[in-house]
Amino acid sequence: MPPVTQRLRAAVVGAGAIATVGHLPALEAHADEVEPVAVVDVDTGRLDAFRARAGEGVAGYTDLALMLEREKPDLVLIGTPPSLHREQAVAALRAGAWVLCEKPLCLSLAEYDEIAAAEGTEEDGGPYSTVLFQHRYGSGAVHARELLASGALGAPLVAHCQTTWYRDAAYYSVPWRGRWATEGGGPAMGHGIHQTDLLLHLLGDWTEVRAMAGRLVHDVESEDVSTALVRFESGAMATVVNSVLSPQEASRIRIDCADATVELTHLYGHSNDDWVYTPAPHVADAPDGADRVRAWRTPAADLPSSHTAQLAAVLAARRAGVRPPGSGHEARRTLEFTAALYKSAFTGLPVRAGEIVPGDPYHTAMHGDHPDWAPGAPAKEATR
User: Fold this and answer.
1) What is the pLDDT of residue 115?
2) What angle is formed at CA 345 by the lines to CA 339 and CA 351, rounded to 5 degrees?
3) What is the pLDDT of residues 45-67, one digit of tens each?
4) GFO/IDH/MocA-like oxidoreductase domain: which residues (predicted)?
5) DSSP 3-state assignment of 147?
6) 137-304+334-364 CATH pick, 3.30.360.10, 3.30.70.1230, 2.130.10.10, 3.30.365.10
7) Longest dimension (CA), the chain
8) Tens of pLDDT along 149-184?
9) Domain spans of the chain?
10) 96-118: string of b/e by CB count within 10 Å (b at 16+)?
């Protein structure tokens, strides 16, 4: 791919809330590298509102195919309901555009593999698709990953990953929420997947999941709470909790390593001050302990986790013609983990990485056609 010498052309698909609070500010922050040229939405009122803020030069469309044909964008940012992601991502990739899509990228591993098949090759330099997991890209997360990868904190041993949020009945009055066919799952898929992805980003490949899920409050098809035990390739073990039933809301990751504990506590986004490092006694009492702890502190430059932070990484990869971070194996790994969590929760059996392949019902749907969880089945309080 030849080097890019002019601003990239970007199109936004879906002009709702996430487009105005996430995608558009990110594009504005990188205005020297990329310009919004089009927006697509079936609601003309949302189109007009988006264009009023983005500027008169942004063309409005109600048809994605027509926009791709006329505008030929370099980058497509997708912020529509999850059931539309696969079709829209594939269309954009086949039109030659790179894709940055809100989570979840798609509703199943089968859909993911279809998106991956539409990507370009390494030789062609793309196009590629990546999912918006912006928590990876804050400077605190980058620093923590470097410390863990280098062994500076000692071997990771025990971890906790928590997404305990609160959603009321009004939240689920939106027709596409709480339904497998349109949202893909409950808090494991639509809420906790951000923290899960960050946990996997920090600790690497997982090997086994044992999980439980329940419908304890909300009258929905999917779950409203889930828990999981996870074993990683490194030998580390973790707990994962996802809930939309928790009045005291928090998003947390804690990793206990041989030499230190690293903790992140936030809600919807983090900065450097949200990361805390606690040395083990044998480190704190050592002659060089103070120097080691000082090196763990998050960097002076503070880049909060955000769409803006992730877009910077995608633009750099696009200009270099290389696969963007958080795509390919890493994106599929997070989705596979989520499918494994559901399979384990609904079958009562442990699930190993690589187990869910074509022919497995959990490859084509997160509910796996389980009689107690598939659409149309009566809601039960909890699985075994």
Assistant:
1) 98
2) 60
3) 999 999 999 988 999 999 999 99
4) 143-262
5) helix
6) 3.30.360.10
7) 67
8) 999 999 999 999 999 999 999 999 999 999 999 999
9) 8-135+308-322, 137-304+334-364
10) ebbbbbbbbbbbbbbbbeebbeb
